[in-house]
Amino acid sequence: MAEAGINDAQNSPAQEAQATTDGFHLVIDALKLNDIDTIFGLVGIPITDLARLAQAEGMRFIGFRHEQNAGNAAAVAGYMTKKPGICLTVSAPGFLNGLTALANATTNCFPMILISGSSEREIVDLQQGDYEEMDQLNAAKPYAKAAYRVLHAEDIGVGVARAIRAAVSGRPGGVYLDLPAKLLAQTIDAVKAKQSLIKVVDAAPRQIPAPDAVKRALDVIRNAKRPLILLGKGAAYAQADAQIRELVEKSGVPYLPMSMAKGLLPDTHEQSASAARSFVLAEADAVVLIGARLNWLLAHGKGKTWGAAAGPKQFVQIDIAPTEIDSNVAIEAPVIGDIGSCVEALVAGMGADFPKPSSEWLNAVAERKNTNLAKMAATLDKNPTPMNFHSALRAIRDVLKTRPDINVVNEGANTLDYARSIIDMYQPRKRFDSGTWGIMGIGMGFAIGAAVTSGTQVVAIEGDSAFGFSGMELETICRYNLPVCTIVFNNNGVYRGTDVNPNGGADVAPTVFVKGARYDKMIEAFGGVGHQATTPEELTKALLDAIASGKPTLINAVIDESAGTESGRLTNLNPQSAAMKK
């Protein structure tokens, strides 16, 4: 009987030749072949069965309440791992919800792939009114690094492989992969299907910089009187941590990290010039950009921020995209290649006699840094009632200082601005914030993505306005029992809660929320832990309890409703505010 059972379980060659598979299985097989094990998304027609199958085949599917948040989770997973994060959505409206996250990933150079079900081409092209009909491929193209559509099951392997390579090679970014409903149900011979899959080899190959470019860069640094190294999030993404640290310490040059590069070297490192940011940007005569772009976050390399009166600066720019060079100002020494290879080449070119910056420059930076740190310390030592941004962030800072492994998500106007300068980071790729666009609403998506990817504690420091964009994902956090502690800085409104209706009408001002809102009760509705904190001491205790428990937690941190300024530190970008100053 046993022997018969074995024979029954084995297929004959003829039976194996007749075996088939379908598009659903091929998509999952293609992802798994390329070591992708997690999908973030929201199910519905026509991709519900794809999500079920992914879970059945051992992949992790994290279901969200809104596709934009799922896309943000996929993007931050890509940033942390250098593998494309996967976001799966339904067609048309679901795709459009995910498109914001895709565009943000492309802008920030995060590798992610947005996979969406779609209507059939022949119906879309004739505009015959299919269910959720939309030309999604062409809608995605302006906001993605690349966009592909797969029409035949035998091409799924190629489509997935091209999407992966496009997402991570060169300058990373968002990729759109369009899968019409009819494709998923297509059947194909199982043997041919297996042969059609592609294991991507060397998806992001090293790009070695030219020797003459390295020499030119070293000459600029060597001849500078007041050199500065500026680290962008691209430097953190590169995971060339040891090489970058060696360059900074061997050169002796002060460095300034952009917000998501904080922790690449500890913020307490003696060469960190974060506390003297305005001074070093204005006074440096040579700036080495590593994984940073001279966009609006750096005043485009021009104007008062860069001390126009102090004379022209020379820039060394390390970037994998040659088209980025000279995008705002002339770059004296472009070094094109991957960051790890470029930094290694610079270090190798520094001989034992490579000059360190002058003591005059280093002392000037240290003096300004110490002065500003003393001013900040005096501000942080105050204990006003009710709490303000500084006293609340002091409490958070002191807790996080003891746990450098914790992932920190941060968004808001004032909440982002103050936290960026008050909370030190000690390890790379532990800080995630609004990034290049300054976009609000990344909070819960980034928090979930970071928690799922790392398996470690996340603390999300949120302005009450920013939290509102993704707050429903508290249910997702509770559903998956993720170690996420969300701290909502509640001052009753956008920027502050004290504005009044200038017309004297019954409606509140455009920036004002419900007074005394209890955000902590929201998470309790989903089975999480809520805390109300009105003092730094209460905030400290609640945060310590949350970290110790590892449970989904929300702390409603009540702060002075008059605390906060219009648009944080970006008031100059508000046209009316700028006009009123003239």
From TrEMBL:
Residues 23-137 form the Thiamine pyrophosphate enzyme N-terminal TPP-binding domain. InterPro entries: DHS-like_NAD/FAD-binding_dom, HACL1-like, Oxalyl-CoA_decarboxylase, THDP-binding, Thiamin_PyroP_enz_cen_dom, Thiamin_PyroP_enz_TPP-bd_dom, TPP_enzyme_TPP-bd. GO terms for molecular function: magnesium ion binding; oxalyl-CoA decarboxylase activity; thiamine pyrophosphate binding. Residues 214-346 form the Thiamine pyrophosphate enzyme central domain. Residues 418-556 form the Thiamine pyrophosphate enzyme TPP-binding domain. Its cofactor is thiamine diphosphate. It comes from the Bacteria. GO terms for biological process: fatty acid alpha-oxidation; oxalate catabolic process. Keywords: Lyase, Magnesium, Metal-binding, Thiamine pyrophosphate. Belongs to the TPP enzyme family. This is Oxalyl-CoA decarboxylase. It comes from Paraburkholderia tropica.
